[in-house]
Specification:
The chain has helices at residues 18-29, 44-54, 72-86, 99-102, 113-128, 160-169, 180-197, 216-227, 235-241, 245-252, 257-263, 269-272, 278-291, 309-314, and strands at 2-7, 33-36, 59-66, 90-95, 150-156, 172-176, 203-212, 274-276, 295-300. By secondary structure, the protein is an alpha/beta fold. The longest helix has 18 residues, at 180-197.
């Protein structure tokens, strides 16, 4: 099992600079890769550049960036620019994001998201490895002046069409907040899609909230990250199977996030996160590995554990 670390700005009362602290710690502990998460606060490429300036060795991946609000050239240019100023390989993750973010934050329509993801992944792959001197976009007349970013293309996927796009164009397929059982099902779908396409399947990774020996406030932060998935098709079924049908029903009726957080029992974190003492977390990691996951991208809880130091130290590479 490979491990990487996600440095993402939380939309709560966490310090705005917290992702940088997480990234610096991850780099010092020897984690190979740091993800610079996109969100309402941080632009992922700016955050990746800041992380590159503050760290020494970690490979950088920006995103997932929502394909409905960034065109393919903007994505590739952002990665290449970040690689140029940091001197590191920079990858990019593509995703559809949510209606709440695309329409509610960016004010852009989120229509035909699966098609948008497929088209963006195809275009990004076509532009990714072009060399200096070649047209920045075929037929544009503008030459590319920066070298390729050097990192990997990741596609965040869940549905059938998104999985097919990842198989067709990505080096890595990313899942977000999933159980081992879901990993098993989604890996099977990925392998089937690769067989149909006659392609080698990408590596399979997942962003998972993590908290070793959590304080009460740490666990609350993990549960807060679960709330947004309760009403999402596919995820809601998983939580129902985990015995959380009443909370899922509340979410379906439009209950606000604070109401849902109060209704979530602590055991909800056990469904899709790495939570508990070190032995419990290690056993959980083994379950994900057995299900077919190749990489866990740790999203360390930081409430009660600044920069996620307790968690990242306990799980650091050996």
């Amino acid at each position: 099992m490979e491990f990487s670390v996600v440095a993402v700005g939380r939309e709560d009362d966490s310090p705005v600079e917290e992702p940088l602290r997480v990234a610096v710690l991850a780099d010092r502990l020897g984690y190979r890769e740091v993800w610079a998460g996109e969100g309402p606060t941080w632009d992922s490429f700016v955050l990746a550049a800041a992380i590159g300036a503050a760290t020494e060795q970690a490979v950088l991946t920006a995103g997932p960036v929502p394909v409905s609000v960034r065109d393919p050239l903007t994505i590739v240019r952002g990665a290449a620019s970040t690689a140029a100023v940091t001197g590191r390989p920079v990858g990019v993750a593509l995703g559809t994001s949510s209606k709440r973010v695309v329409e509610g934050v960016h004010g852009r329509p989120r229509t035909r998201p699966a098609t948008a993801l497929e088209e963006s992944a195809s275009a990004v792959r076509g532009l990714w490895d072009s060399l200096p001197g070649e047209p920045i976009v075929p037929g544009s007349g503008f030459p590319r002046r920066l070298p390729p970013p050097g990192g990997e293309i990741t596609v965040a996927a869940f549905g059938e069409r998104a999985i097919a796009a990842a198989v067709g164009y990505a080096d890595r397929l990313l899942l977000d907040i999933v159980s081992p059982e879901q990993v098993r099902v989604l890996r099977a779908r990925m392998l089937a899609a690769a067989e149909r396409a006659g392609r080698t399947p990408p590596r399979l990774a997942a962003w998972l909230p993590a908290a070793v020996d959590p304080e009460p406030e740490t666990l609350t932060q993990v549960l807060r990250s679960v709330v947004g998935y309760l009403a999402v098709p596919g995820y809601s079924d998983m939580f129902v199977e985990a015995g959380l049908a009443e909370v899922v029903e509340l979410a379906a009726k439009g209950a606000d996030r604070d109401t849902l957080l109060r209704a979530l029992p602590p055991r909800a974190a056990d469904t899709v996160a790495l939570v508990g003492d070190a032995d419990t977390v290690r056993a959980r990691i083994d379950a994900y590995a057995e299900a077919g996951l190749d990489e866990i991208a740790l999203v360390p809880a930081t409430a009660g554990d600044p920069a996620g130091e307790r968690t990242l130290t306990a799980l650091k590479p050996t």
